[in-house]
Amino acid sequence: MHSSRPLHLARGGTSVIVDTSTAGLPSILYWGPALGECPAAELAALASASVPQRVSGSIDTPARLTLIPQESYGWQGTPGFTGQRGGGFLTPAFQVTNLTAGENELTITANDDDAGLALNVQLTLTEAGLLRQRLAVTNTGANEYEVRSLLAFFPLPDTAQEVLDHTGRHLRERAPQRHNLTTGSYHRESRRGRPGADATVLVAAGERAFGFERGRVHAVHTAWSGNHQYIVEQTPSGDRFLACGELLLPQEMSLAPGATYAAPDAFGSWGDGLNELASRFHTEFRGRPEHPGRPRPVTLNTWEAVYFDHNLPTLKALADRAARAGIERYVLDDGWFSGRRDDTAGLGDWFIDETVWPDGLSPLIDHVRSLGMEFGLWFEPEMVNPDSKLARDHPEWIIQTRGRLPVAARQQQVLNLAIPEAYDYVLTCIDDVLRTNDIAYIKWDHNRDLLEAADATSGAAVVHSNVVAVYRLMTELKERHPRLEIESCASGGARVDMGILRHTDRIWTSDCIDPIERLVNQKHTGLLVPPELMGMHVGGPRSHSTGRTHALSFRAATAIFGHFGVEWDISNLTAEELGRLGSWIDLHKRWRDVLHTGTTLHADLPDPSMDLRGVVARDKRSALYGYSLTGSSASYPPGRITFPGLDPTTTYSITPAAFDYEDQGQSGLAWVETARNGAPLAMSGRLLGALGVQAPVLFPEQSVLIEVRAQTPELDHTP
After folding, report:
1. Phi/psi zone of residue 302: left (φ > 0), alpha (ψ -120 to 50 degrees), beta?
2. Would you state the pLDDT for residue 23?
């Protein structure tokens, strides 16, 4: 028998109180800010005070929101676990058989011998203060059992009144949307075989009108790169919760006797404002052993410079200009492999095209390396063109239903990497290219959703098995090539999650690099992903995806905070233009350590046309902020901007770091003029956070950068 006393887990500024006396599985009574020391008697009183009343017209024993709520104990909301055996309806009634608790972890084993099922639940508070739930179910019966769903549940406080999640499309991922939390259930599902361009990176619920700096808010994320689901629900009895997990297709998770289904890790974060909530995810990423430890190389990708027009002289000249500007990594994009003259053929034939590269890639790679840059190469390992040798030789390796190919997308289909021979073929092809060339980086693309994702022979659903295969393929390539880094791209930002980022070193945030679109995209991708893992590039003056034209200062000031790079044909730039780009690259390098280790913050400004974001160093002695005007300001001049995240007791000087904008005939700003005269204004972090300074008058679609430095003599992260 296990103890039925309430348990208090505490770590990373977070407390979780678990009532182990509830029928079935334990129940989370509290999840939020650290509570400090909680005596056993006080915890017992809390558990007693949390028992709901029986009311008229209800079941005799009121149902509780447990870790895996079950209909067998009276729960009538979304169930935590569903499945069937032999086609019959089966509602398990799990009973706890073992419970092991520590200061920050709780492991629960529960069985239903009649149903032939064993459940394992692990709650962990990470060092970052995230609540991780790790769930698994084992078939202990004598015949096959089909798991239909296994979801992690996170309770919400009564103050949660408003929901935030994301939608989107290609070129506009992670567009925020909000609605009131009302009685009923709100479901977000991805059935695309990957998260998708319309996917949400998390679902958050908080106090009404919560923002980045204000309002208690909780959120959950599923660390999985395939089909998934998120649920926000309020029951008629007043229970509020977030739930998340993998979305399993019919017959996709049929367990043989003794087999186990381990659900993807589910993570929960909270904060007083979205800045604090996001910082817990960022801290979690940075604490992983696989997190990149060296400065993120400034990267040039050749796609928007040459597209499929590969020739050695052009690409060498582009490399020369890149090195002159300060680029540190040069990535050759799509078009280098056999038969790939456009996007209709060649995918799957991962052999260097001798008609384009008669001497192989070595002449270009050697030239790039001689200039002091790393070399990277584009692959799309999970895809195949029907017009390819691979498809002609092995049509049975293509995901399909009863010999019928799914509707094509970008003239391509999807390989079933769960087939061992297909997996080995792709692994061998990529390994051979890496082994025979000095390649430090793969841009790993994934340019279509999965439709009718079935095995060609058995007809079984294969989304889950292919996600697992991709993770294994990335792991094996990195084991064979220890210095290899991988970027996850999926039609831009259609595969952004903690699952893929366990195996990759950055994500391509969106195929759209228009700074207007990127300001929103990067802000909301950053609710989960720290900036050093987000590809942020400077494009050409005219955006290829929106047609808008912007000054270099606006494009660069938007991209500078992340893993900085260039997606632009710089071969035709004048010496002056290349020099200006080089100055932005130099500025990024000076601030790179702060930007990629500090705390990312966004200000809640009253005018939606005004955007202020920044990164404060870990010791809070320096910070870089970007202020942008995306449309005409409501007032003229636009009013004040404030600077969140500074130490309130420290005195800072505030100076313009990049103020390249058009003069509209206005007078100078006092704080800008004094800084330019060598005597920057000094203000406390408290005043800068509460009152700030007058924002400069900008035209719409302009940006400036502002640096803040502690005035005390101690050395810090200041670049």
Report:
1. alpha
2. 85
